[in-house]
Specification:
Length: about 220
């Protein structure tokens, strides 16, 4: 095993141990899915992670995700979690199995136009807890139900839950508690939106405590760049 692979293995093991401890402490639901965020790292690292058993990788940019997914074996599920650009939607849909960052109806409509040509990815709807900050992606909590009800049917049928990034301005645990509450509210009208994508290197334990089903972890495993 190369030095890099040993390093990735040790980091991965340590994150797995922390995930399992947080999950045991929560005491309910299924173990969260760990998405290893490979953005800014080469495809060779994703290949080493694959050899270590990783099957879910996350990317923020269409071009990078498209290139890496083409280089690697096809049984990796690629997750797109970056800001969506309208003109990249057909490309994103060609490689991403899951899109975590849907937050505009115009984008949902573009995905919907592809539905008779390919299998659409699954979608998380990104929630923005700082709606006054428009440079951040996400739907404002007060707009969420209306947003869901306006989704084209083909996209709605593939929508599995909510995603958030904890804002700097509040405690991560507080942010996750709010989004978990929104998720409960949403599920009374939309019972299929059961998943919660929240938690990154700095805060995934708090996210798991508040019911995360998917966590997105980069630097704790790959290092920082
Ligand atoms: C980069 C990124 C991550 C991973 O962040 P780390 O702090 O490196 O674990 C997760 N989610 C999103 C949306 C990101 O942009």
């Amino acid at each position: 095993m190369s030095e890099r692979q040993s390093e990735l293995q040790a980091n991965l093991e340590s994150v797995h141990n922390r995930v399992h401890a947080a999950f045991r402490a929560r005491g309910s639901g299924d173990a969260p899915t760990l998405i290893v965020v490979t953005k800014n790292f080469p495809a060779s690292d994703a290949q080493l992670l694959y050899e270590l058993g990783v099957r879910d990788c996350g990317e923020n940019r269409d071009q990078e995700g498209s290139e890496k997914s083409a280089l690697l074996t096809s049984d990796i599920r690629w997750h797109f979690q970056g800001q969506i650009q309208g003109r990249k939607i057909a490309s994103i849909a060609s490689w991403a199995a899951v899109v975590h960052s849907l937050d505009q109806l115009s984008h949902a409509e573009k995905f919907a136009t592809l539905a008779d040509r390919l299998e659409l990815p699954e979608f998380f709807l990104q929630v923005n807890l700082e709606p006054e900050r428009t440079d951040r992606g996400g739907v404002a909590p007060s707009d969420l139900l209306r947003f869901i009800e306006s989704l084209p049917q083909s996209v709605y049928g593939k929508t599995i839950g909510l995603m958030t990034v904890a804002p700097q301005s509040m405690q991560a645990a507080q942010a996750f508690e709010i989004v978990a509450g929104l998720s409960t509210q949403v599920r009374t009208a939309h019972p299929t939106l059961t998943c919660l994508s929240m938690g990154m290197s700095g805060d995934f334990e708090a996210a798991i405590a508040h019911g995360a089903t998917h966590i997105r972890v980069g630097s704790s495993i790959l290092g920082s760049r």
